[in-house]
Amino acid sequence: MNRLRLWLLAVGGAGLAVLLVAACLDLPDFGGDRHPYGDRAVHASLLRHTANTVASVNFDQRAYDTLGEMSILFAAVLGCVVLLRQARDEHRAPPEPAEVARPVRRYALLVLPVALVTGLYVIAHGQLSPGGGFQGGVVAATALHLLYLGADYGALERVRPLGLYETTDALAVSAYLVLGLAPVLAGTAFLANTLLPYGTFDTLSSGGTVPLLNAAIGMEVASAAVVLLAHFLDQAVEIEEEHGS
Amino acid sequence: MRHLLPLPVALPLLGAALLVATGRRLPRIAVEIAGFVVSGGTAALTLVLLLDSAPTMTEWVGAWPPAGRESVGILVVGDGPALGMATLASLLTLAALAYSWRYFDAPPHGHTGAFTALMLVFQGAMCGFALAGDLFNAFVFFELMSVVAYALTGYRIDEAKAVQGALTFGIVNSLGAYALLLGIALLYARTGELAMARIGHGLDATGPGGPDALVLASFVLVLTGLLVKAAAVPFHFWLPDAHAVAPTPVCMLLSGVMVELGAYGVWRVYGTVFAGPGGIPAADLTRALVALGALTAVTGAVMCWYQRHIKRLLAYSTVAHTGLFLVGLGVLTPEADGGVALYLLGHAGVKAALFACAGALLDRFGSVDEHSLHGRGRPLRATGVMCAVGALGLAGLPPFGTALGKAVTEEAVGGPLTVVYVAASAITAGAVLRVTARVFLGLGPRPRDAEYETSGSDEEPETTGLLSRIPDTMTTVPAVLLAAALAVGVVPGFGTLVARSVARAGPGGAHAAAHWTAHGVLLGVASAVLAVALAGLAVIRPDWTSAPGWAAPLRRLQSGHVGDYVAWLLVGTTVLGALALPGVLGS
Amino acid sequence: MHVLPYLVAAYLFLTGCYGLATSRNLIHAVGCLAVCQSATYVLLLAVGYRDGGTAPVFSDIRPGSRPVVDPVVQALTLTDIVVGATVTALLLALVLQIAKRHGTVDPDELRELRG
Amino acid sequence: MLIVVALLLVAASATAAVAQRDPARQALVLSFMGVLLAALFTVLQAPDVGLSQLAVGSALTPLLIMLSVRKVRRRGRAKKETE
Predict the structure, then answer these.
(1) C4-109 — its CATH code?
(2) What PANTHER family does the record tag this protein with (chain C) (predicted)?
(3) I need a surface site. Which of A51, B25, B434, C73 has the fewest CB within 10 A?
(4) What pLDDT does residue B266 have?
(5) Which DSSP symbol is given to A218?
(6) Do chains A and C touch (3 or more CB pairs under 8 A)?
(7) What are the structural domain ranges in chain D?
């Protein structure tokens, strides 16, 4: 059977490789100058006073894609919560405090606030400079988990009321949707960025609803990443199967 | 009105988010009522939009109307087929929620709303995919649909088979989705656009000499993603493994509409992106879809016949029927498209009802195994009757909607392919009838066990403990679904209405009608008679119909090994490329 | 040079598929799937690159003063990365449950679903 | 030129990630590959994408893999002890 798989793999892989290489040779040369959609996107972004065009595409021009993306994250987190729940034949055993070398501990406690602030900064400046809700959210969430290294699991669990993060995650998704639905109530298109003033170019409040949607995403990603990491940590550290099962 | 088009996506998502936010404090009954209201409200909205879908509604999300012909926004298309699929998905979600009402296993502690919320997200994702007029946006909702489906399939984490099936499902479908995305990137490189219609124009403008290797590769990659979802041979291996183990309400959605959305995606993407002179010639698409579709129908039917795990048997019958849909879509005539649409509607009702009946067996006896349940189903009269009726609907007995759709498609396809339609529907229906006769009537001797198979005994019921009687919701829901499948064929003018709205959305814009014809009725009756005969033979003479030697290699291919499935996926892309190659070489 | 980035993307996809098909450990297989997905990032960004272009961020350059690379593919890739991370997490959660229920993460030893 | 180097390094690290059959070590290789990809994206003038690849590809995903490996191994150990 294994032999059959290797044969299939060889045939299928070779066929796909030929197809892909032939396609690559027909592609426009790397670094070409023709990007019609991209040029339009830059123009539209400047029209709406959003300095970071990528943020404008993500949260204004193609905000509907981002809605799908955040729903994927939301669904995956919900899925992980459901899949990694404590099964009927499992129990929790509080882990013994692990020995962490003192320099590591100091380093972790030192980096933690810096990383948290960096995360928040990156979220806040999403529409101006590279970065945004997504990147900042992950940084902030991962930073929180330095506590596991810096202190111990108990300390981490105390500053991490999971229920609160799950609720925040869901509320952030709701906020994004409500921001999208408000224009429909006002008689225009879903997720239209036409209700708020676009502000002064290159300031924190520029871009209409872009900063608001960006903040919602930041909140969602940060809490989603915390919940995800927490459930995997729980599995790795705390949840044990009943012996003899 | 057109501003409401994205709402069938937004409303269920909002409902799900609010349910998760408040779910831990609400009692279960409140959560279920809320889920029911949101899902039902969305279904009503899709229906209202559907009634208003002529002429086609389009909406640029984010209020980016095109300047000239070009926009930076995302297009949502509300034509008959798109809103029809969204309505079907919404109504089936509603049925699945009603089916799981109160009796479905207790939700995880502290997450009362989790199951309902996941179902709502699933509904929103399916609506989003159906309505997408932008290729990347379609990918996003395709992926959302997949992610929710993985989680729902593995929902019963105590079941060894469930988590394995869910992982196989996840890996194969994610790989398919990445192939789809590679295809989108190639199309973007060529045309610099993402809206489907604009990509189509771009291909025609840049490739007046006909398609080249780039177009072929993007076609193959995009179709790989969609056909993995539609479970065409040889991309189909994940489906029986996943559909057989998912919770019953989820099975109803997976088999009833998600797989069909893959076939719908093929129709939509070919029609808007690749149908022009710069795309893939019609003859090549017909060759590829008819070949793969017929192979899928035959493989699905044969594998369906040899199953003893009832849900797995139903899953293979879904494979067989999607094969039939693909053949119908492959011939590229408005009549066939209309027929497939009707067939798909009827099939959704019948298949969901059959899964609901299998679920009732599981919750009553803790088994879905044809052999071990032999004769034990006698007390469940209503479920047994519905199983038999559902099987006849699957065979395409007039006046079921499946029969009307099948007849119209057969007529449009014509020729020797009619045999495939009759055979595949008769064999799958025969298998279900055989199960019905053995389980609910206790007919015939108990069959012997085979060597290489999946048994369905020793399963955990999906309810809290075994049920002593089947609750009313679990009998009402399949009854309503069967009645709906019947109504598709019976309500006068409905067939023509569907056929017209599909034809209007197609490239030709032609007039189409769907009527009962003597020819079609005869073929439908023939399938049903054949199914009954096959089932009777199997029950009376089990040895004659047990797996012969030639079927064994086919069964061994379904190895349950995810590595094999990945290898087959690569082979499938190669086959697809080879089937579509002549048109590229000829240009 | 003109096609190298595209070829690298194709190579990443095929390598990932090879690893996925021959993997003896499901955790490793999920890692290989991540490799497959990185092919899509590389292809998308390669398609959007423009020679001599700069990042499409106008907080420190004057609009119109320099050519910029395609911002749309960057937005698509961002979405794609999120999708990848979440799918990985979900699949890993399923692998953990397989380890519990089957007592193994070797696909060769999972023999419950077949035929 | 920088682009070519980055591309080749990414391809090499992908090969290593697939060839490394031990999932714990693979997580490290993937993390390294995440950094290389982030560098490549920065060279391709996509700092936004580079930043998120750095956060996700080289931190979050490998971390999740490591935690999964730990869980599976711990499970194996607990089982051996009871036997």
Answers:
(1) 1.10.287.3510
(2) ANTIPORTER SUBUNIT MNHC2-RELATED, MULTISUBUNIT SODIUM_HYDROGEN ANTIPORTER, MNHC SUBUNIT
(3) B25
(4) 96
(5) H
(6) yes
(7) 2-82
